[in-house]
């Protein structure tokens, strides 16, 4: 197992982020057009929140820059310290899978309990990944 194997989950997370970004753009632009909202009328986040009704994709897009930041850093640390192993790569893919589930829930039916379970599970996987990396670095 090589360091490159730790980068593929990063590419997958980036792809998920781009997919959610696209969905957010389609939803926002669609609503602006349907309701004839001038872009300047939603220039600030407060104005956007007051005018845009469906914010699920936008909310999820913001979430993809929270825990995943630690994920990306963990992968860089793993690559730099040559800590790619079946365990670290498996944990990285597990995190990606849980973020896909989280995004799918968040951007669709948005049941908070289900979304929270995916979020917490991903967070725990990330903590374990960091623990494994720390143990390997010592």
TrEMBL record:
The entry's keywords: Membrane, Transmembrane, Transmembrane helix
Transmembrane segments: 6-26, 61-81, 87-109, 116-137
Compartment list: Membrane
Pfam families given in the database record: MAPEG (PF01124)
Full protein name: Membrane protein
Source organism of this protein record: Arenimonas soli
């Amino acid at each position: 197992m090589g360091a490159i194997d730790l980068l593929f989950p990063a590419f997958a997370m980036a792809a998920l982020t781009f997919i959610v970004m696209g969905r957010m753009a389609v939803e926002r632009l669609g609503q602006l057009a349907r309701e004839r909202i001038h872009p300047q009328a939603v220039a600030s986040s407060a104005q956007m929140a007051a005018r845009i009704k469906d914010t699920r994709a936008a909310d999820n897009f913001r979430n993809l820059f929270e825990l995943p930041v630690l994920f990306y850093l963990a992968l860089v640390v793993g690559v730099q310290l040559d800590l790619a192993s079946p365990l670290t790569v498996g944990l990285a893919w597990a995190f990606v899978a849980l973020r896909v589930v989280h995004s799918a829930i968040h951007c669709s039916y948005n049941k908070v309990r289900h979304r929270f379970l995916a979020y917490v599970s991903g967070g725990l996987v990330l903590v374990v990944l960091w623990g494994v990396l720390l143990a390997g670095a010592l």
